[in-house]
Amino acid sequence: MTELDADLDHIIPSSVLPPSWAKLVVGFVSLVCFARSYDGDFVFDDSEAIINNKDLRADTPLGDLWHHDFWGSRLSSNTSHKSYRPLTVLTFRINYYLSGGFHPMSFHVINILLHGGISVLMVDVFSVLFGGLQYTSKGRRLNLAPRSSLLAALLFAVHPVHTECVAGVVGRADLLGALFFLLSFLGYCKAFRESNKEGTHSTFWVLLSILLGAVAMLCKEQGITVLGLNAVFDIFVIGKLNVLEMVQKVLHKDKSLENTGILRNGGLLFRMTLLASGGAGVLYMRWKIMGTGPPAFTEVDNPASFADGMLVRAINYNYYYSLNAWLLLCPWWLCFDWSMGCIPLIKSAGDWRVTAPVALWLCLIGLICQALCSEDSHRRRILTLGLGFLIIPFLPASNLFFRVGFVVAERVLYLPSAGYCMLLTFGFGALSKHTKKKKLVAAVVLGILFINMLRCIIRSGEWRNEEQLFRSALSVCPLNAKVHYNVGKNLADKGNQTAAIRYYREAVRLNPKYVHAMNNLGNILKERNELQEAEELLSLAVQIQPDFAAAWMNLGIVQNSLKRFEAAEQSYRTAIKHRRKYPDCYYNLGRLYADLNRHVDALNAWRNATVLKPEHSLAWNNMIILLDNTGNLAQAEAVGREALELIPNDHSLMFSLANVLGKSQKYKESEALFLKAIKAHPNAASYHGNLAVLYHRWGHLDLAKKHYEISLQLDPTALGTKENYGLLRRKLEQMQKKNV
C-alpha cells in the first residue's frame, strides 16, 4: 500500500476497498448522477449531428461515413468543419437502426452507460497512476493504491462538467474517445506485464496501444493524445527519469551521467520510436482524409484567434485556460455555448482579468517544480502523471497548434478532468497527513462528492429539453448573442412570436452582424405583415453575408408580398446561385411566376423543386392545382398520380387529385380519394364540401346534403358551400313537390 493510501484511511473505509466493490460503487454513483437525462429530447447540436444527418439512414452507403464529417457533410467541402469521427457516427447509425428511428431515449441510455463504464475503468487507470506497475508471478497487476484510486474515480464519476458529454447525445464522441484512450493506456501498461528484466516489453501490446489510440482518434480527435501520455508514463514511471538528479549531474559535469539508465535503455528508445512513428502516421492519414486545409471558423466562434496582436491573443488564450481550470475547480456556472461575446476580449494589461492566468501559471509552475524536482519519487510520479493527464488531452483545444471553433467547451474537459481528480486526491492526502482534523477533511471530501452529485442531477435535468437548457444559459452568459438567439428560436417554434421577437432583437443588439438572428427575426416580421422592417433586416443580412441563401430566399418572399416582383425574382435567383439544390426556393419562385401568370415558368420551377425533393408536397399540389385551373385536366391527373406514388399517404394530394378526377367525371375513383383524404384528416371542411359537390354532380343528393352539412358545421363561414347547399335544398324541395 502506498503512503498516499495510508493518508486517506480516514476518508475511504476499508469495507469498500475490494476491487469489485470499489467498481460497483463508482459505477452506481456515475449512473445516479446522470440517470435523469435518460428520457431527454435531442437538444442543441443533436439536431444537426443526428436528426439532419443522412449518414444515419439505411439508404446512405456505409462507405460514405469514411468520407463525411461528423455532421454528414463531405470532408472535401469548403464548408466542412473537418471533424472526422466515423466510428462515433457508426454508433449513432446502429442506435437509429436498433431503435427503429429517432427515439432519443436509446441514444441517451447508451451515453449514460458509456460514462458508467469509463468511470469504472478509471479505477484501474488511477490504480496504475497512483500505485505504479507491479505484477504477481502469474502476471496479475497489483492494486497498491486502492483508496486513492477509488476516491479519484468517484471524483471523476460525479464531476458536473461531464454533463454536456453525457446528457448531450453528440457528447458520445468524447465518451467513445475517452473509452479507447483509457484502453490504449491500459494496453500500454500491459506491455510490461511479463517483464522480469528492466527495459523489456511486449511489442504486441505497444502496437495494440497505438492501434487503440488511432481508434480513439476516429471517435474524437483528441484521442490521439494518448500516445503522448503513454510516452510520459514510459519515461517517468518505467524509465524512472529523475530530472533533478540529471540536472545536478549536468551542472557538476558528473561522468556518471553517461551511464544513466534512461540514456542507455534501448527498449525505451525503441518504444518512443514506435509511438512517434505511429502517431505521425495516424496524423498524416488524418490530414490526407481531410481533403482540403483546416476548417474555416469565424470571429464569433473564437474571437481571440482573430485579435490583431500576438500579445493580445496570448493573453486571451491564457485567460481561456484559466476559465477551463475554474470549471474544473468550481463547476457551478455551466453553459451549453461560450461564444458570441460571452467572454469579452482582454485588450489591455490593465484589465483585472489578467490576474486569472497569472494565478493559473503560478499554480502550474509550482506543481511542475514539485513534479520534476521533488526528492520523493512517489510524489514526482503522481504529480507528473496528474499534470500529464490534465494537460496532454487538452492540447488539441488549446489554440497552440491550430485555431479551434470555440472559446470554452465543457466537453473537451472530459479527459483532462481525470488529471484534475488525480491532483485533487493527492491534495486531500497531503492535507490529511499534515492536519490533526482528519474528520474535517473527510467531511469536506464527502461534501464535495455530494454537492457535485446534486449539481450533476440538476444539470442533467436542464439538458432534458432545449427550453430549460437555453434559459439556464441566460444567467451564466447574458452577453452571449447565441443564447438569446436559441431562446428566441425555441419560443418561435412553440408559437410565441412576441417573446421570440424580443430575444431575437437582443441577439442582434449584442451582435449586430448576427445574420441568422436577422433572418429569423425577418421571417417572424414577415408573418406578422411588418414587411418594411423585415425587408430591411433581410437586406442587411445578405449585405453582411452575401452567400446566405436562406436570407436571399426570405428576402424574395417579402419582396413578392410587397409586389416588387422583379426584385423578388432576382433574390430567388441569387439564393439558387449560392445553393443550387434548394427545393424550397424553387417552390417560392414558382409561386412568384404563378402570381405573374407565367404558368410555364411556374410549372418548371415546381418541377425542379420535386426533382430535388421528391416528397415536396406543396410543389406537387401547386402543379396539380395550376394545371386544373388552366383546364389541363389530363396533365393534372398524370401529375397527381405521379405525386401519390411518391407520397402515398399525403391527404392534400388525394384531395387535389380527387377534384381533378371529379371534373373528368371519374366519380367512383374521385369518391374513393375524397373518402381516404377525409379519413386521414376528418376535420377539413373543404374536403367534405368538395365531396358534397362531387355527390351533387353525380346525383347522390342525400350524400351531398350530408357532407354539405358536415362541412358547414366545421366552417360555418364558407360562402361557396352555403351557396351550393342552398341550391341543393331548393332542388330537393322541388323534387318533393313533384313527388307530392
Automatic annotation (TrEMBL):
Subcellular localization(s) per the UniProt record: Endoplasmic reticulum; Membrane
Principal location class: endoplasmic reticulum
Family: Belongs to the TMTC family.
UniProt membrane topology term: Multi-pass membrane protein
Transmembrane regions: 112-132, 144-163, 169-189, 201-218, 224-247, 354-373, 385-406, 412-431, 440-461
TPR repeats: 481-514, 515-548, 549-582, 583-616, 685-718
Protein name: dolichyl-phosphate-mannose--protein mannosyltransferase
Keywords, in A-Z order: Endoplasmic reticulum, Membrane, Repeat, TPR repeat, Transferase, Transmembrane, Transmembrane helix
PROSITE patterns attached to this UniProt entry: TPR
Location of the DUF1736 domain: 293-365
Organism of derivation: Vulpes vulpes
Enzyme Commission number, as recorded: 2.4.1.109
SUPFAM superfamilies xref list: TPR-like
Annotated SMART domains: TPR
Record pathway: Protein modification; protein glycosylation
